[in-house]
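Hi R.,

Quick one: here's the MEI1 protein sequence you asked about.
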Amino acid sequence: LLLPVSNLCGKCRPCDIDLLQPSLNFLYWSLHQPTPCSQQRAVAVLLSNVSLLELLQKVLECTWERSPPSEAAPLSPEDALLCSGWLLVASLVLYQHRYNTEVHQTLSLDLTKVLKAVIFRNKKPILLLVSIMQFLRAGLRQNFSSSLLVIVGQNTAQGAVEPQPSPPQEAALHPLTTQQVLSLLVSLQNLWVHIQLQKDLLLSQAVVACLETLVEYLYVKNKDVALHVASQPWHRFLLFALLSGGQKSFLQPEVLRLMTLFLRYQSSNIISQKEISQILQEAAEANLAELPQATSRALHLFLCQV
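And here's the predicted structure, written out as tokens:
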């Protein structure tokens, strides 16, 4: 089915939502088959379909063309299609790199617009925001050097009339700027506040994952900037705001993942020996066999980091 469905998508327009929505979801599902052989075959089929990639380019561009709703509204069919498009492209970026698959058609994306979509949000539905963040994570993990992507419009927000020499720090973070990194960090922190109000598990997982990937990206590019980002005092406030919710236990997957992140980058002003001892005490008293899988995995990574 993969070949005819991908060919069918290539013949559609972004307005053919009823047909495209289930089709893109099927392609996404096909990419995430459990065996590497199936994944490799799926990504090769999809990346060889030029018409499909051109269609995906048009779908993603619709993200910037849509006006934000006047108030929070349920996910519309148009937004649902955008979610499917962003998630599919994010997966294509990851699997293309993993299997070094030949690319027959590139996708052009304005990184400034992608960052603004997360930083300013403009009342975007949570699922669309999470989907764009998933793509951003894929780009960060590949250092924005995927052969599937062409990053355009870099630094247009600075409004420079002519190119100026970049300071060493800015050159190291390319194609991001320090201002964009700090704005993204503040946006992720603000989303934590939203999580406290809405108790949105999906958004919580996405924010933690994006923060992890951002710091990992920065550590490769510029260790000083990475350590500066990881040691922001506001992290401690947000972390304990999370613990002040209904479930005060440290044994929450997102809390454990954040603690692991701060340990990894030696942010002693964020997590102290006292918090480490509390987590170890809770783990010792817990019935490990009854912990959810996500909690067990997060606790395992935390203990390995300790």
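Residues 155-163 have pLDDT under 50 and may be disordered.

Cheers,
M.
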